[in-house]
Write a structure and sequence with these properties.
Length: 116
Amino acid sequence: MTVDLDAAAAECGGSVAGTVHAVGGGPVEVHLRWSTSGHGTTDAATVETVELAGGGGRFALPVPEDGPMSFAGKLISVRWEVAALSGDSEEVAEVTILPRGGLTVWVRNVAPPPAG
């Protein structure tokens, strides 16, 4: 089974779309889910599921407007993925969830400390 995403990233409030190709012709469940890892308690949720008839096909899964956004930090990380399940088979494709409006680089406008 393969999961081909139309894009490797999507915005909060947007959607993740792609195609699943499954062998065997049975139904395929496609899940959009996120999980945390790192220090402390982990968390996970499936935010949307769609079932595709025999052998897979096209899917579009809405991303919640309030995220959470993908994040990789020293203490915690948030990872998003699309998982396709058919029988005993599972295939996963990672997707990056960005804030609405895309990726923004924040610049801190503070003068450096005086030399000396």
